[in-house]
Amino acid sequence: MSPFQRSTRRLLELSRRGELRQSYLLSGDRLGELSDFARRWVRLLACDFAAGRDEACGECASCRMWTGNSHPRVQSLAPTSKSREIPVADMRAFMQRFDFRAEEGRHQIGLIIEAECLNTESQNAFLKTLEEPPTGAIFILVSCRNERLLPTIRSRCQVVNLMSNEPLLDPSLLAGLQPLLALLRPGAGAGAGLKAADGMLALFKGMKERAAIEIEEAIAAELEASQDEEAPKKKDKDRAEALAGARYRSLRDQVLVIIEAWAAEASAGDAATRPHQVFSGEALSPLQSARLADLIESLKLDLGFNMNEALAVECFCTQAAKK
């Protein structure tokens, strides 16, 4: 079953039970595929005969209006300027089109493509709408850069992760990280956070040793192939240290990818949308997911700016394990 089928079946089941959220955030790594998914989802929501289907019927009055881009219950917003910024005037015009009551049993649907392009003023204006949404409205946001959205917006959305280009996770790093990440449940406490930090730093130490060995073996093979006995030893040592440092940073980046995959799966309401099974257990709340995303972004920035590695990891782990 495709990700679209899994998600739409879940959507239809929630719709039948009257449990649809008023805002969804579709997150992924390929805008084109995300946008196509979102439009198919909107079309399904608007379809008059969606019951029992995984796709819109394509024949009812709603589907014909959708095909003609004239559906009165569907409004769209996307960046149109060269700056790729959605100004507050566009957001206000978008919201004004929701100033009417939806027919009973029918949804008003707002689709925002590249939601990260909303500037700060636009996001604040939209936040007021999310706090007091129009009757019967459902908003679907599409973004490849969730971190650019206000945490208060992310916390009010149900995140649906659709990573179409899933990264290949290093099996040995994944195996080492999984038990550590399992400790970082909100409310686990400082002890669990410190234990996870100690384990992560031990993993980092092993990565440095691994990087040094890999580079040493690569340079030895290179010298053997060239049979250059006159190669200056000091230069080789300096080169080896630089390459080992670069290799270590590459491994550390893979750790961050795994942590991001773990966070994405922790935000997924449906276990079927957890492709790597990095995370197991009950999904985090939208507010917890937004907070975790902020902590990961801070960790990435701290490591990227070469701040004290041990301090950055300890801060991340202890904060992630707080209530």
Structure notes:
By secondary structure, this protein is α/β, with parallel strands linked by helices. The chain folds into two domains: 3-161, Rossmann fold; 171-320, no CATH class. It is 54% helix and 8% strand. The chain contains eleven helices and five strands, in the order αβααβαβαβαβααααα. The chain has helices at 3-16, 31-46, 61-67, 88-96, 120-131, 151-154, 171-181, 190-226, 233-267, 286-304, 309-320; strands at 23-27, 74-77, 108-112, 137-143, 158-161. It has a five-stranded parallel beta sheet with strand order 2-3-4-1-5, with helices on both faces. α9 packs antiparallel against α10 (286-304) and α10 (286-304) runs antiparallel to α11. It is elongated. It starts with a helix and ends with a helix. The relative contact order is 0.12.
What keyword list fits this structure?
323 residues; alpha/beta; Rossmann fold; 5 strands; 8% strand
